[in-house]
Amino acid sequence: MRSLFFSFSLVLLSNLVLADGPADNLATTVRPVPPVGIELKPADRDELLAGLEKLNAKIQQIRDAKQPLGQALLPDVEIFSRAIRDAVAHRELFAERDINKARQVLAEGLARADALASGKAPWTTQKGLVVRGFRSRIDDTVQPYGMVVPESYAFSGATRHRLDLWMHGRGERSSEAVFIHERMNQVGRISPSDTLVLHPYGRYCNAFKFAGEIDVLEALRHARTQYRVDNDRVSVRGFSMGGAGCWQLAVHYPDLFFAANPGAGFSETPEFLRTFQNETLDPTWYEEKLWQMYDCTGYAANLFNLPTVAYSGELDKQKQAADIMEQAMQQEGLRLTHLIGPQTKHTLHPDSLQLIERKLASLARVGRDRLPETIDFVTYTLRYNKSFWLTVTELDSHWEKSTVRGGLQGQGNTVRLSVAGVNGLRIELPAGESPFDPRHPVNLELTVTGAGGAGEGFSQTQTIVGPQPESDRSWVCEVYRDGSTWKLGGRPTTGLQKRHALQGPIDDAFMDRFILVEPTSPAAHPAIDAWTRAEFQRLVTEWRRQFRGDAIVRRDVDLTDEEIANCHLILFGDPSSNSVLGLIADKLPIGWNDKTVTVGKQQFDAEHHAPVMIYPNPKNPNRYVVLNSGFTYRTFAYLNNARQVPKLPDWAVIDVRTPADSLWPGKVVDANFFDESWQLR
């Protein structure tokens, strides 16, 4: 056992030297991520392509048969096809041994296709290691995840089982084929008794951020349809890059899990890059604001409601992640359980792992507290706006710290909350969960602190008589702030308002279903035409390389009403070249015609300047339009996961005379956020 851990440690350390050396701080010389794989021998290439053709024919046969079982489980087969397709087409087999792995992956796909074509699916009742797949809402691609099904698991009966999410470490060579093979053959770092373990792919190597984050949640949702998961006994765990993913999911979704167990990794951007990467940082003001999307230190108070057991090796530089979280939690009055592997570098110490498992087993027996009387909630964005019975519906200003603290007092039929930076909230207690006397209304006592420019000492309390609990013992109450007064109900609709999943920044559009809309006419100016088409192609290419997806592309003339209703639209071109953009250009807060780009009182010549922005679609304000941008971090950020954060806010103006590079799409001459009503600040 100890030799196994030692070997694993050496592998991790060798990968770290490759991935995080001083050369990775040079934005002018960026190595490719993923690296270029080996060139296949003609015989190996022909063999894999012949097998892939055979597999695709069987998949099409299942598709054409339109049998319910086949349609429901087709992603479990398609994951093997897509893995081999991309491995061969994009040179993502990196060593001779990977060719044999690809053969095994292909063989499993063929076996599943044969079984499913005959109406059978033996892998759905398989114990031990099994790879599953789901179709992503974001881009319709099939995404894999691994399951470890314990021998004690019964596929029938009423028993629900604990499930541990385990996030993997950084692997620049972890293509789908490599990941699937690993999940077919390796149990992994943890295997608690009587526990389902879900290994999300998380879209490769992006630290489970953006589409990777959504894929973790979708994989969990899919697993719940396939296995009898106890929703009150789901934990989130991970090591190295997976430890970073664990911190992120823990602070952003504290009500989903009974426990969090992050190991190593990173928990914020600036101090980690200074400490671990020795990087000299020179961020723009809006980059610093946008660090708050994934910097977990600012969300540390959310762990008040989530038992957390952190782990670090005593000699591991990535111990910094837990150390800085420990400091952030101390500022919130919380004491972090932080286990240290003695004289250990970047690996799990076996004795520490045993102690972790004992602690988690004890917490699993208690399970998740579905309705805590007291909550402590922090957010900087409405993307992350929920904790148990509380949903924050409006903020005073995005990317500033906003808090809600307090709880339910059943005996007094009172909800007492202290809020800062929050202008709207909703409390929802489901049927049977209300602790209140159903014969009387519930008082909502709200104390606003440090708001309205009145300084840290400001405090104002208002009591609202809320609705009476319903006879099914449910209770729902929504309030909003009108000036200095709180009012019952949702805010009357008076125009656009930033709200959950419609709050920006640009990168937010790529966390839900989106379509790239390609122009069919030339832009008004050659430089803009060349730049917008290059940015379009970059997104198509990099979405596959970095987010392991096939972007859905439509020509502007082919876009349908259904797609406008259900998808964010990523529009490339200018109002002359893209007809969809042309139809809405006069309804956007940034003006753009063939002469000028107008931002408030500023004007930029349209011959060499183009806006990038995110905004509610004037044709469907429940979805975004994005102009001329994909995800905003570029190739320099691929070298270190802590850099993979938004680089641009809600809008920017780009001077295309400065060529795009590994950091920026051109020269950013101005950039900012829209206000809470989606207007220019």
From TrEMBL:
Give the superkingdom in one word: Bacteria
GO molecular function terms listed in the Swiss-Prot or TrEMBL record = serine-type peptidase activity
Which interval of the chain is the signal sequence?
1-19
Q: Sorted alphabetically, which keywords does the UniProt record give?
A: Signal
Pfam families to which the protein is assigned, alphabetical: Peptidase_S9
Q: Name one GO biological process term.
A: proteolysis
Q: Is the keyword Cytoplasm in the record?
A: no
Residues in Peptidase S9 prolyl oligopeptidase catalytic domain copies: 215-349
**Key word Signal present in the record?**
yes
The record's annotation in PANTHER family points to: BLL1128 PROTEIN, UNNAMED PRODUCT-RELATED
Designated name of the protein: Prolyl oligopeptidase family protein
* Species for this entry: Rosistilla ulvae
